[in-house]
Amino acid sequence: xxxPKDFFAPLALGAPAPxxxxxxxxxxxxxxxxxxxxxMRAKVPDIAPTVDVLLGNLxxxxxxDSKDAARAGLIEVGKAWERGHTQLWTRVNSLDSPWFLDxxxxxxxxIGDKLDVIMxxxxxxxxxxxxxxxxxxxxxxxxxxxxxxxxxxxxxxARGVANVESICLASPRMQGLSLGPADLAADxxxxxxxxxxxxxxxxxxxxxxxxxxxxxxDDARTAFQQDLWHYTLARMVDACGTAGILxxxxxxxxxxxxxxxxxxxxxxxxxxxxGAWSLHPSQIAIAKRVFSPEPAEVAWAQRVVTExxxxxxxxxxxxxxxxxxxxxQCQVVLQLARDLSAADPExxxxxxxxxx
Length: 356
Description:
Elements: E1 29-33, H1 38-47, E2 53-57, H2 67-79, E3 87-91, H3 100-111, E4 117-120, H4 126-143, E5 150-155, H5 158-162, H6 164-168, E6 174-179, H7 181-188, E7 203-205, E8 223-225, H8 230-243, E9 246-248, H9 258-271, E10 276-278, H10 282-290, H11 295-308, E11 314-317, E12 320-323, H12 324-341, H13 345-351
Parallel strand pairs: 1-2, 1-10, 2-3, 3-4, 4-5, 5-6, 6-9
Antiparallel strand pairs: 7-8, 11-12
Helix pairs in contact: 2-3, 3-4, 9-10, 11-12, 12-13
């Protein structure tokens, strides 16, 4: 563990100084594509302007015999990349794979100045982040990368969840965390084969009703499906908030269920997540809609802040008491709306806020 006085010192001679605060950039959807697929690469110029983050996936969903092609394909995309509102990320192979070192070495040398974030799968403890941190500093110094590459970790094992707070605080490179429900379910021995989302067997039922006076007994008991991931997501959001980094939901695998996807994304948004993964173009619009506050919500927040004046005391608005705590809640919504407005003219017009 580094002492506070040198936590923000570069880990290699000539490496850029670490950031002291992770900048918030809209990342409502992290859109995955397979760089080994030539047809997908050809669609990048059309898809990139429609998403907040475009991520070249080198890990899962890329077969072992396509790893080199995926890496080369991402480098091809990166060399043609023009920086703008859309960020370019990558998910490299896991630290225990034979491809991780080649991934990081090649990407830093070829397109290190184009990448914003490197997503690292199956992070289990702060030691994993420490290794990546030092390696990236050495490569930044070697290649001459001027801005530090940020690191995003995926929670995919029980040990990772147990160490989530120390992972978040392991390095000033930490940009955020994503929930990895499929691998996490397997590691926990959970009995679900779904990628994200709920399960019809994970439910709570109302108490039995006595079969008297015409009552229907068990037939009258109502059941409610619950969220398998609520505990993990809530703990992840708290850990990210403590470290000043950003939490993301992760994937929703059932592409044919847009309603279930929207519900899961909205739960994550309300809990504090800033975005989710989109695995198919149809999920881009869902994430954009869900992780952007509704104009009516923004208007209400603005009204509360305006009527509260200096933010102290309490006022009654439409029969509801508002005080300094609700002002803080409203400021969260307003700041998000301003950040999104700066990159999205349609939202800027809908919100009608000053973005400066």
